[in-house]
Design goal:
The complex is a heterodimer of chains A (127) and B (109).
Chain A: H1 18-46, H2 51-61, H3 64-91, H4 98-123
Chain B: H1 3-32, H2 37-44, H3 47-75, H4 79-106
The chains are: A mainly alpha (127), B mainly alpha (109).
């Protein structure tokens, strides 16, 4: 028998707002980050194999792809840190107003790029 | 305390611990990722690195297990598949950090 119940808005016709965008991104990036952290665990474990075996990982990390990967990890960590801080403010009872929520959402999006650049500069000791 | 409330409290506590640890890790990772084997080993065998990396792995996998189980609750509708997925998730959240800690504390210069 056909289901006559009304359907909730499908993702393709959903009217996107900053809050919904950040909400789904927060979940997706959370999953990506734990996959990245699992790769970091393998990277640490690879150290047990000795310096000769590490040459392969060394060459990947020093390639263009390696740099892209590291900048990608930095951005996804930055995004999650900022989004998590936003959630903590909500838990304390702040930032529920629509305008404040939109502004904090924009801070998460643009701030994640700014923090990525700052972390990269700090990590590479470029200043 | 209700189980869901306990889960929420654990999520929030781990989230607060995780934020500075993620910052510490990513800054250090950016500074050493392209270094040679010996330089990476020097970083990983420092007492502070061993301690902070271990805490990071434990808290990050604990936090992820709790938050990803929420995603399973929301999107997986088959009870059997959901329960198996959550059990696999919790098992990996124990096994992966545990094995990584064994590696970290067995690394020597």
């Amino acid at each position: 028998m056909d289901n006559k119940n009304p359907l909730s808005p499908h993702i393709q016709i959903y009217s996107w707002s900053i809050s919904s965008l950040i909400s789904i991104s927060h979940r997706i990036i959370g999953v990506i980050n734990i996959i990245l952290l699992t790769i970091v665990c393998f990277w640490i474990a690879s150290m047990l194999l000795g310096s000769t075996s590490y040459e392969f990982i060394y060459s990947i990390l020093n390639s263009f792809f390696g740099k892209f990967l590291v900048i990608g990890i930095t951005w996804s960590f930055s995004f999650q840190i900022l989004s998590e801080i936003r959630h903590l403010f909500w838990d304390l009872g702040y930032g529920f107003e629509i305008t404040t929520s939109k502004i904090s959402g924009l801070i998460v999006i643009f701030g994640s790029f700014i923090i990525t650049i700052l972390i990269y500069i700090l990590g590479r000791q470029l200043i | 305390m209700v189980n869901a409330t306990k889960k929420w409290v654990f999520l929030k506590i781990s989230s607060v611990i995780l934020i500075p640890l993620m910052l510490w890790f990513i800054i250090n990772f950016v500074s050493i990722y392209d270094k040679n084997f010996d330089e990476v080993l020097v970083f990983l065998t420092k007492e502070s690195s061993k301690f902070l990396l271990s805490i990071l792995m434990i808290v990050a996998f604990f936090f992820s297990a709790l938050s990803i189980s929420e995603i399973f609750e929301d999107y997986v509708h088959d009870e059997k598949i959901k329960n198996i997925s959550i059990k696999l998730l919790y098992s990996s959240a124990i096994i992966i950090p545990f094995l990584t800690m064994i590696v970290i504390f067995n690394l020597d210069i």
